Amino acid sequence: MLSSLLQIKHNEAMEPDMRIHLPVSVAEGKIKKRYETIPTATLHPNKDEIEYLRRLVIHRDSAILVLNKPPKVPTKGHLPVHNSMDVLAAAALSYGNEEGPKLVHRLDRESSGLLLMGRTKESFTRLHWLFTNLNLAKTTSQTWNAACEAYMQRYWALVIGTPKEREGIISAPISKVLLDDGKAERVILAHPSGIDGAQEAITAYRVMGPTINGCSWIELRPLTGRKHQLRVHCAEALGTPIVGDYKYGWFVHQRWKQNPQPDFEPFTGEPYKLRRPEGMEIQKGSALSKVPLLHLHCREMVIPNIAKFLSSTGEWHENGASWSKEKPNLLRFIAPMPAHMKISWNIMSSYLV
């Protein structure tokens, strides 16, 4: 038995024949803390957790799952990230399949909205091609190709300020830079020379109403799928960072909160006083709170009805299976906004057009 305990520093090297003794409870506790994948620290979620996850599902068929992802939940897990949507779905949303669903695309951790998952290898592969590059997804089938060309995503965002033009197309390539000795990553507008690994990034946008409390609601439609594309285009290309996006709009947030701007009625020009609901809970995370959550939500999605083209055995039918002729070629989904965005929306909704 050891007569005393010595504190070992992380940078000390072990000598031959040295031993480290840890109580079992300490060792197991640290492993669980680091590698925990779902709230119960097990790959078998309990009944309440499964019910919660299944309430997020807004569509399920033989080929896909569509969920309404809540904010602050990462979509893709890795060693430092726990409780991610891919791990949770694999554990609780297999619905009898041998393998759980796989992510077709991703949403940022702090954003919310429609998240598409493939339930079979074939559906995942073809839809992933569609989200990556339209031409990759096309086949010899005119029916399938027409459905692919109708693919679309629409996001709603609350931004600080208002774009100079009411609508338009942002075509601004972006690139990634490493910070803090490679420990952090940031996306920026690419240098015009294009020598910094620039990626094409295109976003269509439309302003949905007037500026109230220094903010505007806008609709965003990404025509390419780059990481942080919408956030960087809003902050750097339009000059109107998304409310709650402190990574790309920290200084603008500081000015916005410290120097609130007066608002005016859009029709009469009279000063407008923002209605402020009473109570802290009702304002939590909204544009009225001191630290708003990110106001970026994937609200609408139109995709090909891939279940119409796939048999239960995974066989591909170019013009749709004979038993699925009555099924539509397209599927359209709309996801309600999370609570903090609903509050902000309700405050400003009387003047949205």
From TrEMBL:
Q: Which organism is it from?
A: Zizania palustris
Q: Which GO terms describe its molecular function?
A: pseudouridine synthase activity; RNA binding
> Quick one: signal sequence residues?
none
Supply the Pfam families for this chain. PseudoU_synth_2
Lineage of producing organism: Eukaryota, Viridiplantae, Streptophyta, Embryophyta, Tracheophyta
User: InterPro entries this protein is in?
Assistant: PsdUridine_synth_RsuA/RluA, RluA_PseudoU_synthase
An example GO biological process term is:
enzyme-directed rRNA pseudouridine synthesis
Q: What is this protein called?
A: Pseudouridine synthase RsuA/RluA-like domain-containing protein
Q: Which domain of life is it from?
A: Eukaryota
Q: Where is the Pseudouridine synthase RsuA/RluA-like domain?
A: 64-235
